[in-house]
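TASK: fixed-backbone design
INPUT:
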């Protein structure tokens, strides 16, 4: 006679697994309940894997290749909260060298993951100072992805240390080789160039290079987002002198944004090179004018296919990092840390679970969900990470900013995100707080509104 535990329906077992995963507790003990639970838990445990600095080396040395076909999603999450290292006793280069070695050791395992559909290497923005990521190790990961992988995220938050690797590998070329089969892609690197999207001399080094550029085709691509901003400025071209240094790059021919935009425009203008419904986005930014407080830090998301731009204004309301304000095109006003705010400005194309695993948002939204989406535990966003301005102001009633005071005294909404046409793409301006008729600003620096005499 079957035991009571054996009689539990599969649907109940999977709900138990989901609750355990949602609590971020280990699933391994489920393997020991009985043989039936062991068989049921193995795919669940191995289908969505998240690796951290603490377990990356162990996984690379002990993973059983026979379990490779069970893996559907693999995320490498590098963050302060999962580092388990004394960041004050080890510099970012030392940690980065160790990480690079572990990533190179992981690379030969990837071809065994023959059913892998989603791969993510993700460093949240506030953890970018933790580690300098060698680009050759990232190239090795991309080069070894199985052909089944159609969703890719490579996000170093611009902490990759060099634009060209020591063994001659060019990360942009590695990406170019896999992009034609991809469906959903998000990239945020410290330096990039047009080699990501085609063959020929790098666009941006010389004006005539665009005439000799041959783009690849992205026929499978549904969503592509390349973030080209660092600290509200553009990231540089590959090969720029010391691209890891905090140099200000405007949206010029020397920037990654300019090179990638022109490459993607070449691709979009070629008949049959991409789907008409594809989302091909480049993320940039325009820094606020310190001499004029009515001009805000502005995130720009450029739709290359449709030649439009969503300009989203942002500002710090208070000194702590969870006090960043963002106004969206649909009228929302949100508060959170810059990492959460950036995700909103990008369009929330990728989502995180409570354990850090990453997946394209479109996979969670489809009615007919795949295996990964069924097992994916949706994120639980702590209120201090992202909340409405009403919730934030209720908790901090004495904190305010000039915008809120101006809107209160005028009785008008003075700031919104903007949808712009193609004329603003190459020379974007920050979003400006409106000055209503009959009102004036005390001074450009202070920005408070008073009635005209």
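OUTPUT:
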């Amino acid at each position: 006679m079957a035991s009571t535990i054996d009689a539990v329906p599969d649907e109940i077992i999977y709900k138990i697994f989901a609750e355990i995963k949602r609590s971020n507790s280990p699933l391994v003990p489920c393997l020991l309940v009985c043989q039936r639970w062991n068989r049921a838990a193995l795919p669940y445990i191995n289908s969505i894997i998240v690796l951290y600095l603490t377990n990356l080396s162990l996984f690379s040395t002990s993973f059983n290749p026979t379990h490779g076909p069970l893996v559907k999603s693999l995320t490498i999450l590098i963050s302060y909260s999962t580092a388990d290292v004394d960041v004050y006793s080890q510099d970012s280069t030392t940690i980065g060298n160790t990480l690079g070695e572990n990533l190179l050791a992981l690379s030969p395992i990837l071809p065994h993951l023959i059913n892998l559909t989603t791969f993510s290497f993700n460093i949240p923005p506030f953890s970018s100072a933790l580690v300098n990521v060698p680009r050759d190790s990232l190239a090795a990961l991309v080069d070894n992805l199985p052909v089944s992988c159609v969703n890719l995220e490579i996000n170093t938050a611009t902490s990759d240390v060099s634009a060209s690797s020591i063994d001659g590998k060019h990360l942009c070329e590695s990406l170019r080789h896999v992009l034609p089969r991809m469906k959903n892609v998000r990239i945020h690197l410290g330096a990039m160039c047009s080699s990501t999207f085609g063959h020929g001399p790098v666009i941006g080094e010389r004006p005539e290079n665009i005439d000799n550029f041959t783009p690849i085709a992205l026929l499978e691509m549904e969503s592509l987002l390349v973030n080209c901003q660092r600290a509200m400025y553009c990231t540089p071209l590959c090969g720029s002198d010391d691209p890891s240094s905090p140099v200000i790059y405007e949206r010029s021919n020397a920037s990654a944004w300019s090179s990638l935009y022109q490459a993607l425009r070449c691709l979009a203008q070629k008949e049959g090179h991409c789907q008409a419904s594809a989302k091909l986005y480049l993320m940039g930014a325009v820094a606020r004018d310190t001499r004029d407080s009515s001009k805000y830090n502005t995130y720009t998301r450029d739709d290359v296919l449709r030649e439009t731009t969503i300009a989203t204004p942002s500002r710090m309301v208070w000194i702590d990092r969870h006090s960043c304000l963002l106004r969206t095109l649909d009228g929302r006003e949100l508060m959170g840390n810059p990492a959460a705010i950036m995700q909103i400005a990008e369009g929330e194309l990728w989502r995180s679970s409570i354990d850090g695993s990453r997946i394209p948002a479109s996979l969670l939204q489809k009615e007919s969900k795949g295996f990964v989406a069924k097992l994916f535990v949706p994120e639980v966003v702590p209120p201090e990470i992202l909340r409405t301005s009403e919730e934030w102001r209720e908790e901090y009633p004495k904190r305010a900013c000039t915008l809120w005071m101006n809107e209160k005294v005028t009785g008008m909404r003075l700031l919104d995100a903007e949808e712009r046409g193609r004329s603003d793409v190459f020379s974007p301006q920050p979003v400006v707080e409106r000055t209503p008729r009959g009102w004036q600003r005390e001074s450009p620096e202070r920005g408070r509104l008073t009635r005209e005499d």
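COMMENT: The first helix runs from residue 10 to 22.
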